[in-house]
Design goal:
This protein has 354 residues and is of the alpha/beta class. It is built from 16 helices and 12 strands. The strands form 3 sheets. The chain has a 6-stranded parallel β-sheet with strand order 9-8-7-10-11-12, with helices on both faces. A 4-stranded parallel β-sheet has the order 3-4-5-6. A two-stranded parallel ribbon has the order 1-2. The model has no long low-confidence stretch (mean pLDDT 94).
């Protein structure tokens, strides 16, 4: 979702060569192919096919394979996105090879060092020459870490570019109707973080909350293969009288369609906190912290620690409140034009001071 708008903007520049390198870290081929199709991303020039594995094994494989690519192609700048292992590995290779790195979505912080993504974010920002910020609070984080202002560019949130472009097609798809649920009459759930799905007691407690909510409204749970595996390992089943539906992972347009007409979203994903804020849909984030606090102060996101004994009651309160209305978000530079500002900085020397 972050790459697609930038790729489109760069494709308008005949004097710029843009090489898309797919590390293959997101290893479910069907899910990956769906994203490329729905977002209109060109076929990658190369796929490193790293696949699954531990953080160490995955990062090491990307280091080795990406280094060979960099040595042969010598790009002028490498764009890295977000906070996954690919982001960190690519930045490390480039830093040692003397190639400038531009980090899209720089400066986000959760202050939670138990999250692998937090380590990836901090190290990547330290290694990057150019820090492309999604929000003003990201600049505050980086300045507190001693990063000079001349490396900061407040371009906005490129995730929203993808959402704005895809929203008409997503609404037309009407995924809710295909599942037999009424607009504003259902809950959408996504869970994937190890802190929630790899701890059996916590996962079981969350499932109990979701089951209780589904007595009020249908709960649609597109489950990542890893999450579904953890649920199956528990031997958990939906109690009688509940409408909690475990679904296959949804392609981007279908997922956006479900989000846009939902009543409440429950998640532990960073991107969905942003999307629901833009759409004006209440979001319960099952985490004690977030690297996107602006979604809580200026958006529609509420942090709900998953071990809180009042979790069910808090979710019911959000559910009863209902949506605030479409496109209710007024967060600065979450306007669908971030990719244009990124390309202006990279190609034309544009400057967007904080």
């Amino acid at each position: 979702m972050k790459l697609a708008p930038v790729a489109r903007e760069l494709a308008r520049r005949p004097d710029v060569g843009h090489v898309i390198l797919h590390t293959g870290q997101h290893y479910d081929r069907e899910m990956s192919d769906d994203f490329f199709t729905d977002l209109g991303i060109p076929e990658p020039h190369e796929n490193l096919e790293v696949g699954s594995g531990s953080h160490a094994r995955q990062t090491a494989a990307i280091l080795e394979r990406f280094e060979a690519f960099v040595a042969s192609d010598r790009p002028d700048v490498v764009l890295v996105y977000g906070d996954v292992n690919s982001t960190l590995a690519a930045a490390l290779v480039c830093a040692k090879a003397g190639i400038p790195v531009a980090h899209v979505e720089a400066g986000l912080r959760s202050a939670d060092w138990s999250m692998p993504e937090e380590i990836n974010r901090i190290v990547t920002d330290r290694l990057s020459s150019l820090l492309l910020l999604p929000s003003r609070d990201a600049a505050d984080n980086l300045r507190a870490e001693g990063v000079p202002s001349e490396r900061l560019e407040f371009v906005g949130n490129v995730m929203i570019d993808s959402l704005v472009r895809a929203l008409p097609a997503a609404r037309e798809r009407d995924a809710a109707a295909g599942l037999g649920v009424e607009p504003r009459g259902y809950v959408v759930v996504t869970l994937h973080r190890p802190s929630n799905v790899d701890r059996p007691d916590r996962l079981r407690a969350i499932l109990r909350v979701l089951a209780e909510l589904s007595r009020r409204h249908p709960v649609l749970f597109p489950a990542h293969p890893r999450t579904r595996d953890r649920i199956e390992t528990l031997g958990w089943s939906v109690p009688p009288g509940c409408d909690l539906r475990l679904l296959d992972p949804a392609p981007y347009l279908s997922m956006l369609s479900l989000l846009a007409s939902s009543r409440l979203v429950i998640t532990d994903s960073g991107g969905i906190q942003e999307e629901t804020s833009f759409l004006g849909i209440p979001c319960a984030t099952l985490r004690p912290n977030t690297e996107r606090p602006i979604t809580c102060t200026a958006g529609t996101n509420t942090l709900l620690p998953p071990d809180d004994p009042g979790l069910l009651e808090a979710c019911i309160e959000l559910l009863d409140g209902g949506p605030t209305g479409d496109a209710a978000c007024a967060i600065e530079r979450w306007d669908g034009r971030t990719a244009g500002r990124i390309v202006d900085v990279l190609c034309d020397g544009g400057h967007y001071p904080v």
